[in-house]
Every structure is written in C-alpha cells, then in structure tokens.
C-alpha cells in the first residue's frame, strides 16, 4: 500500500522490561537472565513461565473485535469498525498523549499477540529522529507533496521503539533512512500507480534499484549514463544515500549483509507482483515463505549496527541463527499484516495478507482467519524465543546481544504498528 503519553515507558512493575532494559544498558548481574533480556528460559536459568514476562499490560485487550463483513470497494461502511482498546491497555489514549502514541480510534481489531513489550518510549527522541528523517526525504526527492504523510507515519518513533539500545539520534536515523528507502521502493514500484508502480515495469525498476546498493561498474564510456541513471529516480537516490550514511556505522560485512537482505526483499516484491499480475492467490505455506523474504528482515539486520557493535558473519549466517531470526522477521511482518488489514481492505485493490490467504484456503471467515494468523504469529515468536535462548547460551556475547536486540525489536515494532497513523482506523 502506498505511503502516502500518556508515556508508555514500561510500567514500573514491568519486571522483565526492567531486566531487559538493564541488560541492554550493559548492567551486569541481572538475576536469571545472564545477558539475554527476555529469555528467562535459557539453559542455566530458572524456568520462568512465558506469561511472567509477557504480562497482561503488554497484551492487547481487544480480542474478538474482528474485521468481519463484506469486503471490496464501497463496502467498508458495512463492516464492523475497529474498537478502541481498553484505556488501561492503550498507552497514549489518556490525557497528555503525545503524537505517535496510540491515538483514539487506533485499529484494535487485532487479537492479543504473544509479543514482548516495548522497552522504552522516548517521544522527544522519536520526534528528533522523525524530523531529521523527513528533512532527508525532502533532500532525496521521495514522496514530494506527501511529506506530511511521511511525518505522520512516524518512522522516527519506530526506530526509537525498536532500538532501545541507543539514544543517539544519528544512529537511529541511519537505520530510519534505510527503512524509509526500502518502504519507498515498495510504494513507488509495487503499490502506487501514480508513482509509476505497475507489474510490467517492476523487474526493471527493482533491477536498477538494486544497483543503488551495489554500484554498477560499467566500461568507462557508460559511466556517465550510470551516474545519471542513479540520480534520475528518487528511490534510487534514497537507497544510495541511505547506504552512504550507514557506512559511518556499518563495516563492510554489515553493509554486505544489508545488501543481501534488500536483494531478498526485492525478490519478495517481485513475487507479490506476479501474484497480482496473474490474479493468483498463493497457498498459505507459499505466502508464509513470502512474508519471510518480503519482511522487516532488512531492519532487523541492523540491530548491531545501530547499537554500535558487530555480530560476525559466521554467527549471523549460522543456519540456526538464521532460522531463529528469520522466524522473528516473519512474525514481525505478520504484525504488519494484522494491523494493516483494515487499510488494505479499504484500498479496493487486491491485497495479500495472511488473513486473506488463510480465509481463501481454509474457507473460513476473515475474522476466524485473523485469529488463526495471530496463532501463527505466536508460534513463530515462541519458537524464536526458545531457540534464541539456546543459541544465546552457547554463542558469543555479540550473538547474545544481537538476539536480545531482535527480541526488543519485536516489541518496538508491535508498539509502533499499534500507534502509527499509517494503520489508524479511517476517520480517526
Ligand atoms: C522497512 C522495510 C524493510 C519495508 C519493506 C517491507 C514492507 C513494505 C513491509 C514489510 C510492509 O508491508 P506492506 O507492503 O504490507 O506495508 P504496509 O502495510 O503498506 O505498510
């Protein structure tokens, strides 16, 4: 789809968030969670039931208000609209709410999800990052005339929530630029026909976009054309610029890792384009494979870069680590599917999401498919949690830190989706 507080810092009684924050802040000696926030089940630690660290306050309380009813152009008025969550479960809905915290009318048609809590909420930091990001978007030329929508979407807040390990706005901004450029690639080439999106040109666009991350090295006489081609398209400019800025913090192996994740993301964009062109609804297993590659993995890949350390390639690419982290990435993207469902139903076009694919394959209502999608999400998060705990127990300190960062990223991502204007219920 085209892009067009009450402070929710972890509640004082929120024991695990406190522990995790302590570990992320580098304070040793956290009982029972040696260097691994949120993995109380790690070998050598006392088993703690999951519910102990996904407390009721971290769970949405809106179960059972589901987007049901007819879908398609002109039918949105017939559907049950999203219900606001209980005030005590909705940070930002009370007096003193800040921009970017969960607004009145936020989409609460999403069932309870098994997800860690977000570990901090610093609206001033989010605002700072968001302002700088919008300035950068203006410089690159992406989203002309729509920067107000970019601002309202508040990727600065996403970065602040998802990367609680640093409060350096420039580091958060480095990741934010990458995310916005990746999102713009989707909007411009896949979703928004007004910016030239269309299946016929998708491959051509993505091929050139890739060269913005991995420069083309032509024979000398074509070099000026290549340089001109990079400047000719705002998405290419944004991707190129985001990599240039990131180089301040990422070493070549981390940059190569991101480039790989983006190439994979682009394969996912192409996959979705082919379903659209052919009018084919994918099978559930196929869609899940898709949501692993058309996912937030490029964002998650920057967890160590943002926090100022380096997970070596041998551990990053260890198949066991890859399995755990890609499961987390898929889960985080299913959060997107659930929160963007109302928006995508209103678009009138063909939109793929796990609920729509499950409803088609399993012949159930969309409401039931939402519940089943939430169960899929939860299984992935449980599996990540279990496997990450085992990996953390035997891996390097950097791996422990990285897995903890991924866990924190999941919590920040969910919180951002709850509050972003991009997914707010129509009219809110
Ligand atoms: C930041 C990043 C890696 C984005 C690329 C993938 C992407 C756009 C998503 C995972 C979001 O999915 P979707 O296209 O459904 O986005 P919206 O729901 O329109 O926000």
TrEMBL record:
Residues 90-103 have a biased composition (Low complexity). The keyword RNA-binding does not apply. Residues 86-107 are annotated as: Disordered. The keyword Magnesium applies. Keywords: Lyase, Magnesium, Metal-binding. Transmembrane segments: none annotated. Pfam families: Terpene_syn_C_2. GO terms for biological process: terpene metabolic process. It comes from the Bacteria. GO terms for molecular function: metal ion binding; terpene synthase activity. Its cofactor is Mg(2+). Its EC number is 4.2.3.-. InterPro entries: Isoprenoid_synthase_dom_sf (IPR008949), MIB_synthase (IPR047945), Terpene_cyclase-like_2 (IPR034686). SUPFAM superfamilies: Terpenoid synthases. It catalyses: (E)-2-methylgeranyl diphosphate + H2O = 2-methylisoborneol + diphosphate. PANTHER family: BETA-PINACENE SYNTHASE-RELATED, TERPENE SYNTHASE. Belongs to the terpene synthase family. 2-methylisoborneol synthase subfamily. This is Terpene synthase. The lineage of its organism: Bacteria, Bacillati, Actinomycetota, Actinomycetes, Kitasatosporales.
